[in-house]
Amino acid sequence: MKKLVLSSALLSSLSAPFLAAEPLQQIQAFLDDADGYENVANTRHTAPSHDLKHVYTISKTDHAVNVFERAANGELSLVINYPGNEDTGEGVRSPEDILISPDDKHVYVTALKPDNVDDTLYVYERDAATGHLTEVQAYRDRGFGSSARLALSDDGLFLYSIDSSGSLTVMARNSNGSVNEVQFINELEQDGVTGNIYGDAFAISPSQDAVYVSLHSSDGAILQHYVRNPDTGILNYVDQFLCDPELGEFEGLAISPEGQFLYGAGDESLAVFTLDDAGSVSFKAITEITNPDSSYDEIWRLNNIALSANGRLGYTTDIIQDALVVFTRDEATGEMNYVGAEVDGVGGVSVLGQNDDVKLSPDGLYAYVGGAYGFSTFALHADTELAHTYSESGDNATVVTTLSNNGPASAHGLRFTLTLPNDADISSASAFSSQTDCTIESNIVTCERGTLTPNDEDEISIVFTKVDASEQTYSATITQAEIDTNEGNNTFDQDSASSEEDETGGDTGGDTGGDTGGDTGGDDGGDEGATEETETPQQDSTADEADDDSSGGGSTGPVLFGLLLILFHRFRRRAG
User: How far apart are CA 307 and CA 305, in angstroms?
Assistant: First the structure.
């Protein structure tokens, strides 16, 4: 028993702790005035098309709208620039925001006129084949003061704008993309707030029946709640939540896919709010960096927040620390957990200085990040893979599964599930790495791991008593927070009796094929995998049974031999 425990501790020590840095992969960086790319300085915002063909960007200091074409591998290439011209009055000046309609037919940009300071909403018709833009309307009316931000309803019928002066405008969108005002709220509800209030951001609920507006005054941040009429687009004020001044002001808002949580990104905080059945806001939590690393250890100033389509991940930019920050999201509590950051100048990452915005591609595979010196593209997806071996020794059978990440990004929130026959008695479930925790419930083993970096792997060993040959089947799956573009390698479903013959050549007590070496305990040298949900005996009981002649063949020799052979292969692999 003592030898088995010692081997477990030794094997666990071989896996160095993972530092949660560089969770993504930067695949492109467009630096202004480098490699032929002009007019990309101070890229404020980006707008990827839903047909995945183009990405549109705006440059505030270069006064331009830019069109990029997206290749199948996610890389972008410049198609055309549309710079503003002060002499002719054509184009835009100091653009603030850009978005594309849900039908991909029109692009909307808030900016100034090149030849004067008129606040303008520019409407462009988009050529789906080339990506080129043709101006349809230059809408100059109230509601487009400095720093105007835009949002479109999911049906594309209504466009909403809020500017820094605190005015809120609702516009109907016509078939040619042009807009006309249907509601203007010049003075948003004060409702106990003293002094002037200023508009920062807003978000439309997934159900499309509510709008949340982020404001600030000398008293702190304010979150206002409006009900929305889907037929007319009209907003009606309901109530507001006055935030603690220490939260700062929120420059970005996002709502979880199920509509239960609201997120505010701002000065030194990423705040979580709960939305009740009536849509009213209440404070829930502040996101703390409880597991800092060498690249990122504290939130300084966040200016936006984007959630993945499945709601399991959050992405934001820290303009002071030049970082693209990644969080996993607890779907039950809504709370965020820091998992890593891409930081300008670290690990070859560039053009993240003074970053201003992150937008996710509609397919969820890429993130586009704009900043002071240009913009860049990051891959978000991860290809996780399962492989396994099966062996027998005495009355026991062992399934050893290798879980690997082929990249390009890190995988987060991994869950491995192995289902055995109903009457299989599972004696242990353990992982080689201390990063992975396994539990047993009846005939099901579940192992969870927070992060698996690209080109990394882990081995999970499950030991159970053999059952009738006709029932010797098992199946396994692996899931993760990121999108996996190759789900074909995320499962296996195999008759274990036949796999023994195919993979071990019928040798139930000897070498089962490479690294497993007839190991009846599999990778018992990893974590002890103590379950918190059941009282199923695991590692210690396995060791006790190994000392008991009646438990599994009457000898611990094969177990010790297998553990030593695993250790040898691990050292050899690391040395290579």
Answer: 7
3-state secondary structure of 166: coil
CA gap 390, 507 in Å, rounded:
11
Cα(498)–Cα(469) distance, integer angstroms: 9
Q: Which residues contact 342 (CB under 8 A, 6 or more apart)?
A: 22, 23, 24, 26, 323, 324, 326, 349, 352, 378
Residue 318 — φ and ψ, nearest 5°? -105, 105
Helix/strand/coil (H, E, C) string of 297-324? CCCCEECCCEECCCCCEEEEEECCCCEE
Q: 479-505 pLDDT, tens per residue? A: 999 999 999 999 998 764 444 443 433
177 within 8 A of 208, measured Cβ to Cβ: no
The CATH class of 2-17+383-575 is mainly beta
Q: Which two tokens stand for residue 491?
A: 């499962």
What pTM was estimated for this model as a whole? 0.82
The 8-class DSSP code of residue 84 comes to: -
Q: Where are the chain's structural domains?
A: 2-17+383-575
DSSP line for 93-160 = EEEEEEEE-TTSSEEEEEEE-TTS--EEEEEEEE-TTT--EEEEEEE-STT--TT-EEEE-TTSSEEE
